[in-house]
Automatic annotation (TrEMBL):
CDD domains in the record: ABC_RecN
A Pfam family that the UniProt record links to this protein: SMC_N
The name this protein goes by in its record: DNA repair protein RecN
Superkingdom of the source species: Bacteria
PANTHER family in UniProt: DNA REPAIR PROTEIN RECN
Family per similarity comment: Belongs to the RecN family.
Keywords linked to the UniProt accession: ATP-binding, Coiled coil, DNA damage, DNA repair, Nucleotide-binding
Length: 550
């Protein structure tokens, strides 16, 4: 329940601090006194978007803080799912900064508006005249029926399965799209893949082939140069190795005289070893080199194939061609196996559809069983609210479409007059009748849905006399299991509250401010008397007010 509310620098409110108790609380005040401001501030706590114009003083921030006693409402799982610390006395704070930025906190943990809205739905239900129009909405009507039918668990399971169904349907459609495109491209992709596979592509193959081609294409010139090089090294009279051997021998004789000669000897000897090795390698290359026109033609053919493929696929190296080949292989494979994949996906969907149909049938049957009980309760309450001929005809038909709350199609029909025709609520009921129907529904829902607090904003509009007494009695009964607020202009309802608060305007230093105070017994008598007879209170009004309170 809402146990405390603090508002600073909001609209016409400078600073307001008020505590609330369990039971039936009345809020009254003259038109324009600021009751809507109070609701606006409370709405910010519940996740409504902030407006910089809400600040009374544009230079300082607006702070709205509410304390909720939620010890008996089993909201721990909700706090866990929203990653919040659960506190029996939960504090929600909303700040609007002069810059226009807004911040929200739950038990001092920063939260976003979505979290605030999710939490707010489980803390307080603000029912305004605008909310009455929910009655004509199919989704709200289903919520009423499902609350009585205890369908919450089935609906949760249904929504999980429906989410799977929609996901798999989307994937199936994507498979159909792939199949359609694949059929068009299959032959062309297969041709390209075969072409790449026949090339037997290997990483770094191109460089090796180009080197081999250059060698085979210039074999005579290479042989001539190798032969000449070998002669320069090995000639018996003037070869480099012969002369270098003589140099080594001379330096070897000198090496015993000085370390400097020894170093020279070692260096020349090292060069001799290296050149001798090079000579052997030249000889080996010369022996292994042969003219091979067949191999030259094969290498040239392979190179031209690779060059053509690179140009055709607009790539720079073989690795890119291999990647394209793998992609084409996958496409061709998908194309060839797509029918099998589609059939598998269709089986999965059929399994989900079976589960959905079973849950939908259970939801439907629960609704069918509940409707007579709901109709009877509604008509009984409306009888007390001055609508003795009110009748409901509620029909649910199992359809074929998987809607957000089952497969049922709903006809929620109403007749206000004896012998009258049944019609949709928005056509058959007036504004005052809709308000009474909504109160009847809320009073029934209060028995099935555990909500800490409900606030009725002028739900009594358009009614008076004995009907207002009955409405007050219904709200009193609801307050036995939950906290109920009623913003009202009717003295009959105001007198039924366990506590009474008054919203009023006052001028302080020529600045108009809105405030809220709790009235004691004597102040309640005066307030109700004024509601009965106006500002100039008569003795009869006082007497009537006392009678209503007693």
């Amino acid at each position: 329940m809402l146990s405390a509310l603090s508002i600073k620098n909001y609209a016409l409110i400078d600073q307001l601090q008020v505590n609330f108790n369990q039971g039936f609380a009345i809020i009254t005040g003259e038109t324009g006194a600021g009751k809507s401001i109070l609701l606006g501030g409370l709405s910010l706590i519940l996740g409504k978007r902030a407006d910089l114009n809400s600040l009374k003083n544009k230079q300082t921030k607006c702070i709205i803080e509410a304390v909720f006693d939620i010890s008996n409402y089993k909201l721990e799982p909700l706090f866990i799912s929203e990653d919040l610390d659960f506190e029996k006395q939960t504090i929600i704070r909303r700040e609007i900064l002069p810059s226009g930025k807004s911040r929200a906190f739950v038990n001092d943990t920063p939260v976003n508006l979505n979290t605030l809205q999710t939490l707010g739905k489980h803390l307080i239900d603000i029912h305004s005249q605008h909310e009455t129009m929910q009655l004509v909405d199919d989704e709200f009507q289903f919520q009423i029926i499902d609350a009585l039918a205890n369908n919450a668990m089935h609906l949760e399971e249904y929504q999980v399965q429906r989410s799977h169904y929609k996901k798999h349907q989307k994937e199936l459609q994507e498979l159909f799209n792939i199949q359609s495109e694949a059929i068009k491209e299959h032959d062309y992709n297969t041709f390209l893949l075969n072409e790449l596979e026949q090339a037997h592509l290997k990483e770094d193959e191109l460089e090796a082939l180009e080197e081999e081609y250059e060698t085979l294409n210039n074999v005579e010139d290479i042989k001539e140069k190798l032969s000449e090089s070998h002669h320069l090294l090995q000639d018996e009279n003037s070869g480099i190795l012969e002369r270098l051997t003589q140099l080594k021998n001379n330096l070897q004789k000198l090496s015993s005289y000085s370390n400097s000669y020894q170093d020279l000897f070692l260096r020349v000897n090292s060069s001799l070893i290296e050149l001798d090795d090079a000579s052997s390698e030249i000889e080996s290359l010369q022996e292994n080199l042969e003219v091979n026109p067949n191999r030259l033609e094969a290498v040239n053919t392979k190179l031209q194939t690779l060059y053509n493929l690179k140009q055709k696929h607009a790539v720079q190296d073989i690795s890119e061609l291999i990647a394209i080949k793998n992609q084409l292989s996958e496409k061709v494979s998908v194309s060839e196996n797509i029918e099998e994949t589609i059939q598998s996906k269709q089986k999965e969907i059929a399994h989900i559809v079976n589960a959905l149909d079973l849950i939908s049938k259970t939801i439907h049957q629960n609704r069918i069983k509940t409707i007579p009980k709901l109709t009877k309760q509604l008509e009984s309450i409306l009888l007390d609210l001055g609508m003795p001929n009110a009748q409901f005809k509620i029909e649910v038909t199992l359809g074929k479409t998987y809607l957000s709350n089952g497969k049922d199609e709903l006809n929620f029909l109403f007749s206000a007059n004896k012998g009258g025709q049944f019609n949709m609520l928005k056509k058959a009921a007036s504004g005052g009748e809709l308000a009474r129907i909504m109160l009847a529904i809320k009073s029934i829902l209060a028995k099935y849905v555990q909500l800490p607090t409900i606030m009725f904003d002028e739900i009594d509009t358009g009614v008076s006399g004995e009907i207002s007494n009955k409405m007050a009695q219904i709200m009193q009964q609801m307050s036995q299991s939950m906290q109920v607020f009623a913003i009202t202009h009717l003295p009959q309802i105001a007198a039924k509250g366990h506590t009474h608060f008054k919203v009023f305007k006052e001028d302080v230093n020529e600045i108009t401010t809105t405030n809220l105070v709790q009235l004691n017994h004597d102040e309640r008598i005066v307030e109700i008397a004024q509601m009965l007879g106006g500002i100039n209170i008569s003795n009869s009004a006082i007497a009537h007010a006392k009678q209503l309170l007693n």
